[in-house]
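Teaching assistant's notes for section 4

Start the section by putting this record on the projector. Ask students to predict, before seeing the second block, whether MMPL family transporter will look compact or extended. Collect guesses on the board.
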Amino acid sequence: MDRWFAGFFMRYRFVLGIGSIGLCLLLSTGLTRLYFDSNFRIFFKPDNLQLQAHDAMEQDYVRSDNVVFTIQSLSKDVFTPQTLKTIGWLTEESWQIPYSQRVDSVTNYQLTRAGEDDLLVDFLVEDASALSYEDAARIRKLALAQESLVNRLLAKDGQATNINIRLNLPEDQREAIDAVMVVAEAMKARAEAENPDIIVHLMGMAAINQAFNEMAMNDASTLMPIMFIIVLVLLTLLMRSLACTLATIVIIAVSVATTMGITGFMGLAINQVNALAPTVVMTLVVADCVHVLVVFLQGLRSGMAKHAALEESLEINFQAIFLTSLTTAIGFLAMNFSDSPPFRELGTITAIGVTCAFVFTLTLLPMIVMGLSRGLPIKVPENDAQDITAKVLTGFSRFVVRHHRPVFFTTLAVSLLIISFIPRNELNDSIVHYFSKDTDIRQAADYLQENVAGMTVISYSLDSGASGGINEPAFLAKAEAFETWYRQQDAVVHVTSYLETIKRLNRNMHGDDPAWQRLPDTREEASQYQLLYELSLPFGLDLSNQLTFDKSAMRVDVIARDLKAQEIIDLDQLAQQWFVDNAPELQATGTGLSLMFAHIGQRNIHSMINGNVVAVILISLTLMLALRSFRYGLLSMIPNAFPAAMAMGLWGMAVQEVNLAVAVVFCMTLGIVVDDTVHFLSKYLKGRKRGLSPAEAIHDVFHKVGSALAITSITLTAGFLVLTLSDFNANMLTGLMVAITIVVALFFDFLFLPSLLLMLASGKAGQQPPTLTRKAEEPALRTVETDTVT
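Reveal the predicted structure now:
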């Protein structure tokens, strides 16, 4: 059957090649439909519980979309006339930012006081442009005494402060965020130019979403060209054939163009995760092409004609390439078990790319190779013995055959030891940790967290159950008890809600007596204070960010220091237990980006475990059927699954921290590392069917596909290492983990798999372990060469 397919592809190579180019041109028109969407919402399915709670919170209160100016004073004090003037200017100008809905800062903070029967509300800074140093000192003292400011908008030491601009963005945020950030960046630049004593950091969801978008575009525009260059250099050096390198690059180009065109027709948006699909597809195309071209070059070295050498290469590799493409696609499709849509899309797009690579390798590569060979002669070394790779692999195979028993047990022991470190890995998923420490957005987030307020925010909507119910003394008392409990938690730095306001109003209405800094005694008092306060507030600074329209519910924001994902979940679970024990009628679902990403990371790990199990079973069944051996199909599970597990173990030894992206690495690498196993096992079984002994069959495998496996592994590793250049840490860690796994898989397949096959062969025959003398080895190698030429 393989011979028939090889003959078919060679006989009709021109028709198939032209047809493939036409198909590529047709499907690549879908590229015009691609667009970027890097909103944080892409990480969550519509039915995600935390996302639904987040949307409900935004519907009841103000939107969470915002821009934050963090003003850092180089003189260690923002309360100077010049800096307060800059803060005042930024506060006023922030109302002009597109979609601006509310601006909160130190300068427009509302101070309350009673005036006879009226409640008076004044800005903390009335005229920031005309302040003396005495005025600034007085403002500093007042500001640092406000509990609702410190650790929220103001650093407790007065060295930094925030200006928070709430935005009411449209549903399609792509152009809106660009418009917002253009104005914000211009304001930042002007403020720093006019006041050399400050540094302005830009943060907030708009800044984060823009950073996501920029990273996705940068990865797509920079990583692919870098990968092309690496592939060009590596393939030229390793195969030493410019024609073969050019042929591979053509297949890469048409495969990627077709894959992304299909993606456009599917209506999928490009985001910071699935943007790496073209790079992954490129590396996988190389695997198919290299196996065909390396055996083709071996045929030429042995004196075969180009047509005969290429046809034989297709015959030898057809089954293995089909199996590796199928199993690789299965591995990537298993990423659809992921609870996060971008990783599911990455798996689907890459599976499509694997299929395109398989089709174009068989239908287009023969036409290109034969066409290039006419105008660009393919030169090969005269003597295969001069090939360094062949020499190394020949020596390697001799070593493994002679010492297969100690190699087996040593490799197994080391593997199990490394795998035992997996439990040391701890999930730490934070939206700001997705950015490299070298990026402006990450540096802004780190500064904000270390100097002003924590980045971990958990929000609750406490519902009284009735319109106006937030003024009921019983409700207020239980809400206060909840806040008091939260403030007692070690990780919490600030809790903010309407309670701060109502207690301050109660004090104001009792002559500013500190003893009255407490909740009102009656509903009538609370309602009157609330009404007076809202009537006194300036436009845009009402209580809609703290209370629902009908005053039935109140928002509580808990700000904590930087916590790991499980610590965030544990903190919220403690709060849920507090509700159960003390106020079940107020129980509210915690929400906020920190909690949302913590939960998605945990669920992604659990869902991907199921995906991994399904992928391993399907791949093993596929190999059982293809190899027609239950034993070898089952055996393949070890070299397929162990490398990814070992990579996780190595990560546990060195880093001990994983994020959302690492959960999908097993499925990604499972499909890729199967390539080595399939080629090794299929060639080994073919050798055994030809009557070779187990030891001779191992030598046969190393001679026939050893170089191809080494070249593909080196190229794949280099390709995925390109991802480590990404400023998006999810992509960077994925690339690094996959590269580690591929390297481990190569050594595992070169050490553990052949020694395991020899152990099984000797055990089955009830003989001593097979060994070869040098005289016995050489005929085996000659047999291989003769078989290749035939």
